[in-house]
Specification:
By secondary structure, this protein is α+β, with helices and mostly antiparallel strands. About 35% of the residues lie in helices and about 15% in strands. It contains six helices and four strands. A hairpin with a 6-residue loop joins strand 2 and strand 3. The termini are far apart. The relative contact order is 0.14.
Length: about 180
């Protein structure tokens, strides 16, 4: 009988969500909530709402940026005004699941301007794409001439948004 030595995996322990949140005090949390609501608020306006002077607010923002809590500042545009009123969720299943095919899909989907979001999923589908286009005809062309040209796609399943009920760009920040 051959014996096998039990090998312990070499895991790197990452901080949990609670550890990251422990780095924030109530003022940091309020500051993040304010910035999520309106990133154009000036340091002076933020200071007034937080009951602080300019310098501590500026330092807090820089610290939160450095820690990675604040990733970027963006303007949220109106998709209809941009001529892209159709939102589609496309489930993509791959034929083969080896690393090279997955890496290639992830690389190629980055090049598709119509894809706003892409998630690698666990479950019955491999990827979930959020796509914005101007019309159903545009979506047809996107699938036919762009998406389906990516190697190793097995099945595409598309669903179309009839009405957007909730679209919140901010995250819940616990007290």
């Amino acid at each position: 009988m051959i014996g096998f030595a039990k090998v312990q995996p070499n895991f790197v322990r990452l901080p949990t969500f609670r550890n990251f949140m422990d780095a924030l005090d109530d003022t940091d949390k309020k500051l993040l909530r304010l910035l999520q609501q309106d990133a154009k608020l000036t340091t002076k306006e933020l200071a007034a709402q937080l009951g602080l002077t300019l310098s501590p607010v500026y330092e807090r923002i820089k610290r939160l940026e450095g820690l990675g809590f604040i990733k970027q500042y963006v303007a949220v545009l109106d998709k209809g005004m941009l001529g892209q009123p159709i939102t589609t969720f496309c489930q993509v299943s791959m034929r083969y699941h080896d690393k090279a095919f997955i890496d290639k899909f992830e690389e190629e989907v980055q090049k598709l301007e119509e894809v706003q979001e892409c998630y690698h999923m666990a479950g019955q589908v491999d990827f979930l794409l959020k796509i914005h286009v101007g019309s159903l005809s545009d979506y047809h062309d996107f699938v036919k001439y762009k998406l389906s040209q990516i190697e190793n796609i097995g099945v595409l399943n598309s669903t179309f948004v009839l009405k957007e009920i909730k679209h919140n760009l901010g995250y819940h920040i616990p007290e």
